[in-house]
Amino acid sequence: MNNQSTASRRPKLSLSSFYAATIAFVVATLFAGREKNVVVGVQAFVPLAQEVTLGGPRRPTSRTTTTATTTTTLGAFFDKMFEEEGPLGKGITVGKVQVALTTTDRSRNSIFGALEQAVNENQGSTNYDLACLAQGVCLALLRRKSSWTAACSNYKWFKEDDYGRAESLFNEWANREAVKFEKEYPARSSGDDASAPTCVVVSLLLELAGDQTELEGAGFSFARTEEVLQSIASDAMVDDGDCVNAVEVFWTPGDPSEVLTNTDLVVDFPELVTI
After folding, report:
1. Which of 41, 113, 168, 195 is deepest in the core (most CB within 10 A)?
2. Torsions phi, psi of 75, nearest 5?
3. Cβ atoms within 10 Å, residue 1
4. Beta strands in 109-233 (DSSP E)
5. d(C-alpha 240, C-alpha 249), whole Å
6. CB burial class (10 A; 0-12, 13-18, 19+) of residue 158?
7. CB 240 within 8 A of CB 130
8. Over 70: is that where the pLDDT of 222 sits?
9. pLDDT grade, residue 36 (50/70/90)?
10. Chain-centroid distance, C-alpha 209
């Protein structure tokens, strides 16, 4: 009689075999489509500026078509696997979205007035103040969707332990924008029509705790640009704004008397994508 139990006939799976099988599965999944390359930004239009860091104004420059690529790698996959989950996901995300639009209105009801209002109402430096500022800028742009001419976005994800690198990238991007927005543009002459159209460029930089906010695709279409702005506006207020670590806002022209042309946009903001 065979007294061997059924359980004793089952092959034992060693720990090393388990890890090998897991890694093989992950690699197969990534190469089956999890790896993605996202091109963000190409070309467009824009000029002069105002900067708000919760602070004051500044002004823009430069021409070279640039692209940004985001690739999901095996290392990033494992980094996220072991990160703690927060209200908006894992890790830290540094992002930037830019929108160009045209307007003839320079009154308090214009995009200029809306941006000034968002800044003036959120002068503090708490997470909630920063969140309200980000939301206010996004809503001001969403309300003027019909005037959009170009947009772009970019972002980079960091592990929570790499908060220093995330802050460094945020500062680097903010300084780069500040330099561009330092440029002044010709003012209307006394004989020009006061309602002459001008281009306006708004740049929003932010650092968020988490990875769930949609920051990819602005400039690909009106719908994708709208999705990015809506995602920022809603996610910024999660947990009373505690997920928002930093915000900077720039816009140009900063002086209503100045005029930005389409040529200025192409030269000074080549990353913008016409929509």
Report:
1. 41
2. -60, -45
3. 3
4. 148-158, 198-209
5. 20
6. buried
7. no
8. yes
9. very low
10. 13
